[in-house]
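Weekly structure sync, notes
Attendees: PL, DS, HV (note-taker this week)

Item 1: Mercuric transport family protein
DS walked through the input record. Source organism listed as Bergeriella denitrificans. Sequence as pasted into the shared doc:
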Amino acid sequence: MANITLNISGMTCGGCVKSVTRILEGVEGVAKAEVSLEQNTAVVEYDEAQTTPAALIEAVEDGGFDAAEA
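Item 1 (cont.): predicted structure, written out as tokens:
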């Protein structure tokens, strides 16, 4: 398992945090996602054999938020 921190922009409330968490945890290979509204970040634990940082970023962006590696 690997960990990555993503900078997330576009979150304005707790509902956004839940949405981003749901998006990330819905990606195959993601074990856990911890999203922080205060820090505008997501720390994601994932299986490198099943997904990539680029796929995680794409999933978040497809959900309507901006994301980049921290």
